Amino acid sequence: MLGPAHVRRSPIDHAAPAAVTRRSAALRLLAAAALACVSMAQAAQAQSILRDAETETLLADMTAPLITAAGLRPSDVKVVLVNDDSINAFVAGGQIVYVHSGTIQAAKTANEVQGVIAHELGHITGGHVSLAGRGFQEATGISILSMVLGLAAMAAGAGEAGAGVLAAGQQAAMTKYLAFSRQQEASTDAAGAKYLNAAGISGKGYLNFFKTMQQLEYRYGITRKVEYMLSHPVSSERVAAVSETLQASAAWNKPLNQDWEERFKRVQAKLDGYLLPPAQALQKYPEGTQTIYAHYARAYAYHRSGYPEKANAEADALVTNKPNDPYFLEIKGQILLEAGKPQEALAPLRAATDGSRNNPLIATTFGHALIATEDKANYEEAKRVLRTAVARDDQNPFAWYQLGTVYERTGDPARAALATAERASMVGDHRTAAASARYALAGIPQNTPDWIRAQDIAMTSANSLDGDKRKRK
Q: Closest Cα to residue 274, out of 10, 11, 54?
């Protein structure tokens, strides 16, 4: 089920003053986005990441051919969903593609999202995150030099002249960096087209998404006249640059994968139900509409707005339509669990876990339900389920929290401390991680896998704490 993995609100406020025109506001946003490129890794950490078994499975399936075409291994590349309603995607180092939820919601087809991800894979293979540093270093060199000249002018009594030098230098730095960024984006557009063709996937969605962006540019009055202020080429140029390559491919007229497209519509409905204000979601999917997508969206909207009976009725409609669908069973169990009925939630969640081949996110919810029954007879099963879940996905803080809970309840405080250390280490709480790991070391038999893991966390957390102390000096 949908949920945030780690939430930390971004400190950047992109709101434009009321007196600013729509065009200048849009240009300020684009300029801010360009500057943000130099610290993408920090920006990614500042976002709220959405974890959902169905969405992650779909994104993995529909991007695997593209990742292979890019010369990468699907097992090494992750596509991560960011809780942000703007239309955007980015890479932030390593082999992780971050896609905003707004991109999924705005896309008309799964094929459009494939085009977006193909483009981002071009950034990975082109090494553009590291290269961005090179472009920014040159721009920073200009800015620092002008800062020195400006301060010298002010010291000599020419305050206005000094301010002018500073402003001109900063503008030059921004212009140089934006030109560098546009060059990267153009090469990445070409790479994206290449990967779509090589994967045998139609590029129509790629062009359609560019055209969607083009409409946004028209709305804000962004044209080639202000291209020097943009981090990307204008969308009309991007369409023209890749159209011939895409249309010459045998994949151009290839039918879309209907399995992916159907699953994509379900994910869109799920996101609408989870992310839109409930009243807006219910307006978009009114009671009279009896499609799978409408039931899905309403189940989430009612669940979020505190109507468990209505939410359960929508989940029942889904399960009646497809009794063995693991994701429908998952939401059915989740609604029951959060309505204070963990015992009733066990059957659908157990079936969802089995039907999804022990998907770790679904298994974590099942483990949580087993613990929530407060029936000691369920604790050993919970322990097995949760250990399997963290073995397959160790980047889930909630799974580690639940595993620590069941260890504590079964009289194993040392491994409960180890689970706490894992969770704390993951969220950057190095002090708790170090203390919990040391406690675990004292109670776990030496040289066992759990003892070695506790030792690793104790050492890395201690090093991180030392590093933090040095930074503060």
A: 54
CA nearest neighbour of 55 among 356, 290, 339, 311: 356
* Spatial separation of the C-alpha atoms in residues 433 and 468, rounded to whole Å: 14
User: Quick one: DSSP state of residue 11?
Assistant: S
Contacts of 116 by beta carbon, 8 Å cutoff, 6+ apart: 89, 99, 103, 107, 206, 209
Cβ of 395: how many Cβ atoms within 10 Å?
15
Question: Are the beta carbons of 272 and 289 closer than 8 angstroms?
Answer: no
Question: Cα(388)–Cα(314) distance, rounded to whole angstroms?
Answer: 31
- DSSP summary character for residue 92: -
**CA 407, 411, 417 angle in degrees (round to 5)?**
50
3 state SS of 15: coil
Exposure letters 196-217 (e unless 16+ CB within 10 A, then b) = bbbbebbbbbbbbbbebbbeeb
Residues 320-337 as b/e (b if ≥16 CB within 10 A, e otherwise) read eeeeebbbbbbbbbbbbb
Q: Output the CA torsion 281→284→285→288 (10° steps).
A: 130
Looking at this protein, which amino acid is placed at residue 287? E
Neighbours of 253 (CB within 10 A): 9
Task: Find out whether 137 and 180 touch, Cβ atoms under 8 Å.
Answer: no
State the Cα–Cα distance between residues 43 and 90, nearest whole angstrom.
10
Res 29: pLDDT = 35
pLDDT in tens, 341-386: 999 999 999 999 999 999 999 999 999 999 999 999 999 999 999 9
Residue with tokens 């675990």: 440
DSSP state of 126: T
What distance in Å separates the CA atoms of residue 271 and residue 106, rounded to the nearest whole number? Answer: 11
Question: Which band of pLDDT confidence, cut at 50, 70 and 90, is reported for residue 19?
Answer: very low
Give residue-wise pLDDT tens across range 165-204.
Answer: 445 444 544 444 444 454 567 678 889 999 999 999 999 9
The contacts of residue 457 (CB under 8 Å, 6+ apart) are 418, 421, 422, 425, 433, 434, 436, 437
Match 């160790």 to its residue by tokens: 394
Residue 449: C-alpha distances to residues 52, 439, 452 (Å): 30, 16, 5
Least Cα distance to 351 among 371, 370, 323 occurs for 323
Query: 51 pairs with which residues across the strands?
Result: 3
Q: What pTM did the predictor assign?
A: 0.79
Which of 291, 313, 202 has the alpha carbon at shortest distance from 249?
202
DSSP H or E run through 4: strand 3-4
Spatial CA neighbour of 2 closest among 57, 54, 51, 49: 51
E strands, 19-127, are 49-51, 78-82, 89-91, 96-100
